[in-house]
């Protein structure tokens, strides 16, 4: 589940989820490393609006900073992770 607000914040929450990790940004090599009973991720994006006189809406909205926080509860490492020592 994902929820957005007007400031560009995003909150993602999950229950009984697999945790995957990998080195590529697209997730193509991600492997399951464990299981969590609850997970939440918050992404906050600060923006700068460029407003022009005579225009009703901003002509540009540019991101100036990004903050990401994660929280896991009840993490259990997977058997394959123990064998491979991920």
Q: Care to describe what's here?
A:
It contains one helix and five strands. By secondary structure, the chain is mainly beta. Strands 1, 2, 3, 4 and 5 form a five-stranded antiparallel sheet that branches. Strand 1 and strand 2 (10-21) form a beta hairpin. The model has no long low-confidence stretch (mean pLDDT 77).
Instruction: Calculate the mean pLDDT score and round it.
Output: 77
Strand fraction: over 45%
The string of secondary-structure elements, in order, is: EEEEEH
Categorize the overall geometry: elongated
Terminus-to-terminus distance: 28 Å
E-strand count: 5
Q: Number of DSSP helices?
A: 1
Report on the biggest sheet: 5 strands, antiparallel
Unreliable residue runs: none
Give a brief description.
7% of the residues lie in helices and 59% in strands. The protein is mostly beta strands.
């Amino acid at each position: 589940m994902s929820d957005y607000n007007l400031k560009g914040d995003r909150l993602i929450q999950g229950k009984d989820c697999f945790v995957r990790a990998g080195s590529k940004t697209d997730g193509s090599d991600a492997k399951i490393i464990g299981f969590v009973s609850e997970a939440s991720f918050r992404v906050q994006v600060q923006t700068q609006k460029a407003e022009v006189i005579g225009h009703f809406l901003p002509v540009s909205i540019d991101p100036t900073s990004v903050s990401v926080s994660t929280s896991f509860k009840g993490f259990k490492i997977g058997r394959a992770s123990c064998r491979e020592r991920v």
